[in-house]
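Tokens for chain A. Residues wanted.
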């Protein structure tokens, strides 16, 4: 656990494994760059035997003093994801890990989503008596209005994606139909601590969620970055982004802001889950792992 002012944050991990081949995730990545950074990447962030980056899928549990808030919801169990084996018909003990972090589903007041890809909304729902129902019965689920519209097949701005073919039906629509979904815009604020900030690129309405408490700040950066190597090479476009060039601009703005303000960065997919701080270097940016586990 980590403290940011009066807020307490716990990482709730679903899985860690070898995932992306470097050049598939980062088309501009080259062997020289990998070799230059292998001394810190292997074995935690890169699996030399598999030739792949290692990534986590996790949520963050935040206690603000007023509410219990969950940031993103991993891949979930029993979801039909044949195009994505990591998330297809899984049996994870994530709910037990959430309990170990100190929250039962009924104690979660808000779920905040950086975006609505399958690996960020899976635990929005659970399968009960053959139907998908909200996992968190007392929670409001906060998502950007444009992100909801993008994935809603009934909306004019819907954009089909094979990687999210079933996600709307099993992980978003049940929350909407239960009356628990709240559509928000850039700048939405919760508990005078958590603010929704635009970071478009990965999806066009992707957001980061900034936490301010006292003199300290943290930012839940979602998929602005997938692996720590992107801190060193933020200009590399990402193949998973809807708009890689826009993603580069969002990444640079986030890194510059965090370096200037000493903000703790808490990405979804970095290993480990305690986050990092950004500092400027002669070459650009570097990171230092957060050592606060209080």
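Reply:
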């Amino acid at each position: 656990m980590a403290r940011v002012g009066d807020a307490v944050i716990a990482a709730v991990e679903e899985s860690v494994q070898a995932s992306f081949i470097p050049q598939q995730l980062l088309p501009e990545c080259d062997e020289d760059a990998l070799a230059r950074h292998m001394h810190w990447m292997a074995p935690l962030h890169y699996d030399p035997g598999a030739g792949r980056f290692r990534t986590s899928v996790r949520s963050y549990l935040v206690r603000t003093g007023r509410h219990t808030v969950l940031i993103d919801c991993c891949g979930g169990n029993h979801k039909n994801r044949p195009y994505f084996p990591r998330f297809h018909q899984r049996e994870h003990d994530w709910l037990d890990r959430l309990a170990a972090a100190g929250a039962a589903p009924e104690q979660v007041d808000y779920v905040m989503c950086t975006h609505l890809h399958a690996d960020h909304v899976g635990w929005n729902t659970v399968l009960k008596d053959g139907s998908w129902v909200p996992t968190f019965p007392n929670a409001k689920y906060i998502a950007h209005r444009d992100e909801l519209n993008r994935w809603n097949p009934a909306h004019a701005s819907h954009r089909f994606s094979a990687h999210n073919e079933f996600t709307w039906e099993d992980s978003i629509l049940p929350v909407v139909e239960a009356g628990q979904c709240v559509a928000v815009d850039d700048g939405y604020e919760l508990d005078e601590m958590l603010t929704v900030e635009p970071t478009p690129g990965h999806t066009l309405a992707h957001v980061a969620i900034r936490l301010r408490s006292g003199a300290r700040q943290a930012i839940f950066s979602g998929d602005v970055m997938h692996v720590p190597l992107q801190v060193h090479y933020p200009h590399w476009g990402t193949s998973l982004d809807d708009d890689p060039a826009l993603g580069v601009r969002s990444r640079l703005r986030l890194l510059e802001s965090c370096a200037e303000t000493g903000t703790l960065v808490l990405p979804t997919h970095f290993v480990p889950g305690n986050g990092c701080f950004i500092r400027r270097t002669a070459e650009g940016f570097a990171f230092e792992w957060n050592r606060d586990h209080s």
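Residues 244-261 form the longest helix (18 residues). The chain has eight helices and 17 strands.
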